Predict the structure.
Amino acid sequence: MDASDEDKDQDELSSKTQRKREAAEARRLGQQLLDCSSKQLQQLPIQPALANAIAEYHRLPNSHGARKRQLQFIGKMVRSDDPERIRSALESTVQSTTQTDAKEICRALAERLLSGGDVEIENLLAKSSRLDRQRLRQSQRSYRQADVVTRDKISNKLVSYLMATLPNPGTGSGPETSGKE
């Protein structure tokens, strides 16, 4: 009788574990939905209540874990809908000009600037007058003098600066096209 009770407990444990995995996967899918633009969300086959929950997430401040709770709620709504249908539609809708791609372009540009010389800075400034020459040179000097840990911080700051300053780094209209020569 103890063996059957043990098997029953094992089945309950595995099903609870499976539910937790599904909940975590739904939260990750919800996080991906949060990264989508409103135009992309309109193209996805999601319920209006889910779209409203996503809009509410963007309006919430991050005080007292409000966004975390809202993300959990979005995950619950994704689980109640068809997560696989949403995932496949999301993958087909997301274009190459997403925020992640723009960040990767800026990261490659920052690496070129930090490892290159004044020529790289001058080339970039010729293509985008919105950038600050002094800030770029200061980042370059600090990078050369820094240790490995600090170099990562300097590189990340430069990537953030480029993301904020460059217009549409993922569309090919910005300075990143110089790396494709």
